[in-house]
Amino acid sequence: MPEIGEVARIVHYLRKHLVNRTIKSCQGFEDNIVYGKVGCSADEFSKAVEGRKVTGAGQQGKYFYVTFDRKPHSVMHLGMTGWIKFSVEETGYYKQAKESTVVEEWPPKYMKWLIKCDAEKVDGQDREPVEVAFIDARRLARIRLVDCDADKIRDNSPLKENGPDPVIDKHILTIDWLAALMRRKKNPVKALLLDQANISGVGNWVADEVLYQARIHPEQYCNTFGDEEIKRIHDSLIAVCTTACETLADSKQFPENWLMKYRWDKGKKDSNVLPNGDKIVHLTVGGRTSAIVPNVQKKTAAVAGDVDEDGGEKKSKPAKGRKRKSKADEEDEDEAEEEEVLPAKKDRSKKVKAEKPEANGDDTAPPKKTAKRKKAKAETVEDADEGADVKEEPEGSKPATAKKAKATPKKEAKPVTPGSRRSSRNKSG
Predict the structure, then answer these.
(1) In this model, does residue 188 exceed pLDDT 80?
(2) What is the CATH number of the domain that holds 320?
(3) Basic residues composition bias: which ranges (predicted)?
(4) Residue 420 falls within a domain, yes or no?
(5) 37-57 as b/e, with b when 16 or more CB fall inside 10 Å?
(6) Which domain does 199 fall in, by range?
(7) Where are the beta strands (DSSP E) in 302-350?
(8) How far apart are CA 64 and CA 4, in angstroms?
(9) DSSP assignments along 83-111, one per residue
(10) Rounded-to-integer distance, Cα 329 and Cα 204, Å
């Protein structure tokens, strides 16, 4: 997911190619999720933007906004896979670092809006025609209009509900402010950093980098740290976010000692090692994948229950019926609406219907085919509620066991009495 540095990259290109220009046309592509989830529509967006002069572009954490010469203005979020593309320049970042000779088609796929500007002279300089497209394949981005003055955009929803930005709000996000925040909360420190209501812009890899640089275990509770540890977290938070924004998320310019440059080989043998030989371990804690370096990130107080005493992931069997999370959820799922969960497999062993007893006068019901399997399962599960999976037997029948059923010889068919139904199982010919 694009985080604070990647959003800074988008804002940079918006200022370069769109600010101070007049939008000739805007074509919105209707999407009842990307627009509709935030009370907007493609048609409303197009009408509000077309013919307007762009006066500015900015960000707060993972959100970015574009202001015009009159309200309304637009606030946008890239979601998991959203991006802004320009017809005159490639704007990809480290995830597209591999060079390619393939010429990308224009207009691109998965567009949510397409803005066009004519060639014009701005501040005495000639500016070429440009087309700008907002794309999102997974439809987790958000595009909205905000009816307020341009200089008040951060005082309105959704920006006002988010915490301070570590780069543009350094005067707010001080050591004392962070210490007060951490001491009134009681959750793992990484969870605190990822909560956008606390601090804007910190995503999964940024949080892991901050905690690695600060030598802090990600699952230690945030209210257990001393002044010196909080200062390390604060300084690391400001430094990592500032570097990510100043380099426009270009990982080639990141310091060589950053965890971020070596953390992506999860599951590969003999990988996940820093240049100094320290091993990188991936933990799935609190539903999120965390990269840590155990030699550096030591625990000094209580940690979350899903991390063992050695800093490793506790191994436990998943509960029955629990939904399996997709790979995308494990990597980065900051918002609840961005989660994708695979449906749980049906537990067919609990839906076996009880067979009806024979109507030929025999009061013993035939043995159930699932009796042996249920008995074996019951013996292997500890502390299970008694009778939780037991089906109620039909009235007039006796409970059957698989062992007795195997040892019981086949009974001879009894003569049918008048008025009774003869079972097909007892037909002799």
Answers:
(1) yes
(2) 1.10.8.50
(3) 317-326
(4) no
(5) bbebbbeebbebbbebebebb
(6) 175-338
(7) 324-325, 341-342
(8) 10
(9) EEEETTB----GGG-S---PPPPSSPSSE
(10) 11
Closest alpha carbon to 291 in 379, 350, 203, 364: 203
Q: What per-residue confidence (pLDDT) applies to 240?
A: 98
**DSSP codes joined into one string, 210-248:** HHHHHT--TTBBGGG--HHHHHHHHHHHHHHHHHHHHTT
Least confident of 287-291, 326-330, 405-409: 326-330
Q: Which amino acid, 221?
A: Y
| Residues 149 and 209 placed together within one structural domain of the fold | no
Q: Is residue 359 part of a domain?
A: no
Please list, residue by residue across 114-131, b when 16 or more beta carbons sit within 10 angstroms of its beta carbon and e when fewer do: bbbbeeeeeeeeebeebb
Instruction: Count CB neighbours of 325 within 10 A.
Output: 15
Nearest one of 306, 307, 289 to 298, comparing CA atoms: 307
Residue 123's pLDDT band, with cuts at 50, 70 and 90, is confident
Residue 120, pLDDT > 50, answer yes
